[in-house]
Model the fold of this input.
Amino acid sequence: MQAIAVVPHTKTIQRIEHTEPRILRPQQVKLRILDVGVCGTDKEICQSGFGTPPDGDDYLILGHEALAEVVEIGTAVQHLAPGDLVVPVVRRPCPHDECVACRAGRQDFCQTDDYTERGIKSMHGYMTEFVVDEERYLNFVPPNLRSVGVLVEPLTIAEKAIAEMQVIQQRLPWRNQLDPELPGKGLKALVLGSGPIGILGAMRLQVAGFETYVYSRSLTPNPKADIVKSIGATYISTQEMTVEQLVKRFGTYDLIYEALGAGPVIFEIIQALGPNGICILTGVPEPIGPTSINTARLIHQLVMHNQVFCGTVNANPVVFASAIQHLGIFVQRWPQAVQALITRHPIGNFEQVMLGKVGGIKNVLAFKQI
Done:
């Protein structure tokens, strides 16, 4: 079967012939890949060669954001049937008994860093025609989400961020009586960045009841700003308003959701975080040289205002289930906005999509056209 792979030590990406997998254990499921989302991690693997092939291979099949169709099931599979749509989780647990997180099924909090990840670390990914996986790592997706289901995995980033926020803010007992379905009611959130993670985060924050603002570089008008406005959020360009002007006009924010992966910006934007606020970091910035930061002011603000910095990565099955539920809500509320996020490309255009600049918000390689 065909697959798209990178050879890390040469930083080359190519279409290869790979052995079609078959079910070997009763709990396994064979999948036909439909869509694979392309994100910054995929491009960084191609450009920097940091991806890790499985033992015995010198190449890594790319892709960790996938929507697939079940084509065959093992004899012990209980909850899936041929024809079902699924989204797989990315990270798999480490083998160490002392890692209580992985032993509890929470490999997103792995303590040893010896986990594996599909299409990233020591496991082939989903940019191929067929995959065999364990049922426990597959999440059922309703048929009505066929055209947008590939957005589930990136949406889990925002889902986990909000879950982390809710746990952290249990420190504020007067907030515990609020509607759990609207944890942001009466609060303001600032999203940094208007890429897929940023816009999906803004949608999730809107559903959670936050008054949501998106702070991004591009001047208006632009397609991303149009989507942000269509969901009822406010778009602000960094070229039109400084952080100081932002705070002066709109005040401070109860939650800052970072979806940029740009280190220095975080320390500048912290002045927009309000008392008892949380700044959740989701991006991984590229290494840069020394930067000037007023650490005394930063620490003073964090301490005196009871603020929290929280990093979050990866997701667990509960978060995936929540993302699927909320993606369905997005489609009901803003069908055109959700569809506008996706630009599909035939798999033959993989080099242009992975290595070039093709525009769009969320680029998707389609193994099977809708």
